[in-house]
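Follow-up to my earlier ticket, as requested here are the two runs.
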Amino acid sequence: MKRIQHLATAALALSLMASAASAHPLDGLTAEEYQRINKILKDGKIANDDTLFPLIELKEPAKADVLKWKQGDALDRKAMVQFTSPDGFKEAIVNITQGKVESNEAIKGQPMVLFTEFMDALQGVLGNPEMVAGLAKRGLKPEQAFCLPLTGGNFFTEEYKNSRLMKVPCYRVPEGSNFYAKPIEGLFAIYDIGKKSVVRVIDTGAVDVPKDNWGYTEEEVAARTPLRPKMNKVTMTQEGGPNYKLDGSHLEWDIWRLNFRVDKRPGLVISNLDVNDGGTWRSVIYQAHLSEVFVPYMDPTEGWYWRTYMDSGEYGFGLFLSPLTAGIDCPANATFLPATIADDKGNPLEIPNAICVFERSIGDPAWRHFEVFAQTPEKPIPAEGRPATELVVRTASEVGNYDYLIDYRLQQNGQVNIYVGATGLDAVKGVASTSMKDPTAKADTAHGTLIAPNLVAANHDHYFNFRIDFDVDQPVNHFSTMDIVPAKMDPASPRKSMWTVEHKMPNTELEARYKLSSMQPRYFMISDPAREGYLAHEPAYMIHHGDVSYGPFDFANDPPMKRNAYIEYSVWNTVYDPDQRYAGGKYAMQSDGSDTLAEWVKADKPLMGKDIVTWFSAGFHHIPRMEDWPVMSTEWKTVHIMPHNFFAHNPAMTLRK
């Protein structure tokens, strides 16, 4: 029997070595690799059947090795593994290829929430006598309550030391589709998910639970109000099948090629994004992914002030990927792909239809020109132009009440657009007011909007930080800005004001952080100093613009803002460091702000002659409105990346009619 087990293990190891030689080094971990990781740790007596794994991520090979890699080369496959132990959380580096553990150290921080911990909190709160009593005061039994464990941030008090806290408000169990329509306001528990116990229950006074179910399925909506007349469906069709080619994680389309994977924390990761310039493949971006999502609420009351979520680092955008639906989330002709991550036990968990890939005609011209001077009465000449098509790689993560779509959209003119679509449901609190005419309305809406009778949606923000490691032609790039500034005018000139472009190159990390303002127009350039471009320009890509927002926050003294101080500026630049992947720090859960992008740049490293990573925070302020309820329209925010003197001409010129 032992010999059979040994042969099976050897066969698995040989299979993994073969796949390592054929797979791309930045491919996501496979189901077989997750199983292998588990076995290596258990064989080494480091893990056992009771061990839980908050996070298992690919430990990427050195960037230089990846850039030298050719198909058929073998690089060791490794994983960073965070896991529970009798001594607390630990982190190991597991060499999957060689079957050994290279390091095993205690974690200096709190890893992301386990799903097991989430469920323990949900059930543990409803079994607490104080919570049961609080529900009884509101005429409810535990079985009538649905409780939602939420990360409680870190407010640097004794309560947060040597603990792992979640705060758990509850809702009336829904009679329809909407789980958030009936908040049980004024009552929540603080639960230590590490110790599996209720720390305390807070009851600030009962508020009547709203009566309306506010369902959003078609049947529920039809019961409330007439549906619109039926319309002829507008669908996308494609004769002859897709123009893109998929080979595992490798995707090629038009002038683009890239690799992609899903990680448990950031979700979709794009790597090795190259563009074809007249038959030559040129590098644009080595890697891009979501770095952190920060959603702070602006309600200072006891039940709301702590709602300052770090959705990616605390919960995981990859963990909460939801299956995409053909004809709704993506066109019916899209290619749907699964994602594989690890569950709490370290076993492979496949999420079906987690990624969709599709190309679409956007119904706009890529370019056009109508030449009026070429027209004659005898021979009218139509406009010359080409239709625009784009490729979309999409995922959708449901983190609590919100759904976030993440798109990477590639254009035929060499541009890249990162889109974030926010939809789902507003977070609501129960109030006495049913109308703004009520005497309680002013107090009830001091920090939000009455969006339905007895429901206020609190004001809040959404910030999405992306880590974009540009490698324009090569890793060592220049970073600079093009600023629109007043031109010096000759007093004799009839023109008294013009603008000109001023090129500025920051020397260090602290100099290379910026806010965006229409009052101070500026473009952010990443260029290759070693390559003489067409017409002797320095070839570049630039962040042209993006959706940004700023708040009057105190980044020195307000704990949530100190933990997420990277939102103070929209654009940051750092010297490449493989350990600096997430702007909010490696361990977001109850972090103290000491390991963040805003702290890393205090080293103020020189940028000249270095491999530079650019960080961009897109965001928006959300002042809720009645039109957000019971479900929100998708609000799209962008990061717009475009070539600047990279190509010899408009790449879309060569499109066919």
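Run two:
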Amino acid sequence: MNSFRTRLLFWLVTLIATVLIALGLLLGQLLKDFYAETMNKRMEKEAKALAILLENEPLEQIRSDLREMGDELSSRVTVLDKEERMQFDSGRVAAISDEDHERIVRAILRKKQFPRFSVIEKTNDVYYYIAPYGRGERSGYVILSTPTSSLKKVNEQIWGVLTSSLGMALVVIIALGWKIANQYMRPIEEATKVAFELEKGNYAARVPDGEYNEAGMLVRSINRLARHLQEMSRAREIQTDRLHTLIENVGSGLLFIDHRGHVHLINRAFQTQFHIEPSDCLYRPYADVLPHREVVRFIDDIFITETTMRRHMRLTIGIERRHFDVYGAPIIGTNAEWKGIVVVFHDITELKRLEQIRKDFVANVSHELKTPVTSIKGFAETLLDGAMKDDEALEHFLTIILKESERLQTLVEELLDLSKIEQHGFQLQLSDVDAAQVIAEAAAVFRQKASEKQIDLHIASPPGLVIRGDANRLKQILLNLLANAIAYTPERGRVAVEAEETEREVLIHVKDTGIGIEEKEIPRIFERFYRVDKARSRDSGGTGLGLAIVKHLVEAHHGYITVASEVGRGTVFTIHFPKPER
């Protein structure tokens, strides 16, 4: 803007200076012509006066008068007869020789361009005026020559006055122009700077307050515009931040594709669900970056039909198969302008899993309850049909009924216990528990059973090893693990419970030399009613709920359980408890 102000002032000064110079040249030339014309008229009058004097008086009588008149007039008076012979000459008055003076006079007379009077302008810095006089023998020419020094002096004075006056006028005009330019251009410059800042997005820019006179309306308008833009920008930022927070934190995957078919936005949930980095897919065609053909075909259908669609998909992501409820809709702007497509991925894998668990649970519970109930009913009907009269059969059948009823009672109790553990408000009675004591109490329960199968039951725990937990629930965990270990370990096998501590954890290992578990079955052994060897489990009186209870109780203690097993060699269950803070 400074350059604009400078250019404006430059062209303004140039225009004014040009006008003043042209005016000065015109005035100078007019004054010069005026003084030249005045001098010509004066010389004409003087020459006529001399001619009249020569007509009335003889030359010899007025020679002295002519010489005095030449001195008074500061002019050279020359008189020629009709034959153009010099009769009188008052002498030089300028730096010109007599020979040159005579030559110039002869040259002028040869032109004969004057009928009666003639003015011959400047010749060698001298003005010549020739006037004829008399008739007959007393006729001739009187020549008046005056140097131009006086005219030069007058011209110099004229140009001096014009230059000084016009120069002062130029200075005054420049000062006024600078002041006016500052007065009107400064607010415009300030407003322009603020406009540039607003263009860059700096809506906090303002034109400084000041006395701007006529430009004040522009300044106030710019400031009002800046305030409105700042308020709109702040509101837009708040809205954008809210929208961004909503999009990023919504639980469902979100995919936005623009009208060209390029991926324009993906949220955090989508990245997590499909293990996709934004840099790998943003602003690229969706068909090139989306790894699942089902999703691509779904988006193609929306582009073709321009209608809302919903579809259930089962997609393989890594080594997992996940279920999605996919919703897609076209985005149509104002004036039916096509904006793109938004696709929402609702991960319903957990719902499907829970639904399957519910189905399996109902089927397993029905199956587990059906066996003892059928046995009890069958033996009761047999007794009622007459077998009760046989004392030996009666005792055998009642023993079976008792055993089945106990099994049914155990199943119901474990179901109730598992339901209680899984409830949201379930709480442990936490205290510092001696690991060695809990292990010894749990092992004591199975000493007799281990002895019957000739199983070596070994326990080992360093003294002073403390676990922060519920003593009864810890004992329940070990009882369930020991029950499985002894049940699945053949005769003359070995079962060991060992405890140790690391820098951050307390570990309890339950080892056996039993039948082992296949690697593919290990992830499922903590499911309800799942059995590795279903026939032996049922014969041992197991319900299939023990390991599910163990897993929930360990997690309630903020720990976790790991399994290492080899078929035919045995299994090791390791419980990881966090070390209590000191």
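The only thing I checked on run two: The radius of gyration is 63 Å. Let me know what else you need.
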